[in-house]
Amino acid sequence: MTEIAREITGTKGRYVLRADGAEAELTYSILSPTRIIADHTGVPDAMRGTGAGRQLVERLVADARAEGVKIVALCPFVKAQARRHPEWADVFD
Predict the structure, then answer these.
(1) In angstroms, rounded to a whole number, what is the distance separating the alpha carbons of residues 87 and 24?
(2) What is the annotated signal peptide range for this record (predicted)?
């Protein structure tokens, strides 16, 4: 796996993890300077079982915490990860 890149365009953003020509992503929408919606996590078959989705959510949580942002989890995968990690409760709305 390579480093996770963060891309922001206007009110949309995404985290991208690339490996061997495949690309996993977590997309989000910016509601305000202190609130985002985690919209979707997509992991291609070639990257399933590698922890790519979890790594994307971990990066989202770390950045949200560092920037004082709250996350609204619309994406079912992000919601499930939030339930599995009660230590992340401070960044989820």
Answers:
(1) 24
(2) none
Q: 19-32 burial string, b = 16+ CB within 10 Å, else e?
A: eeeeebbbbbeeee
β-pair type (35-42, 5-9): unpaired
The count of C-alpha atoms lying within 13 angstroms of the C-alpha of 51, restricted to the half-sphere facing its C-beta, is 6
The token pair that represents 69 in the structure block: 């942002």
Secondary-structure class of domain 5-91 per CATH: alpha beta
- What is d(CA 62, CA 72) in angstroms, rounded to the nearest whole number? 15
Q: CA 39, CA 14: separation in Å to the nearest integer?
A: 10
Reported as a single tens digit per residue, the pLDDT across 68-83 is 999 999 999 999 999 9
pTM: 0.94
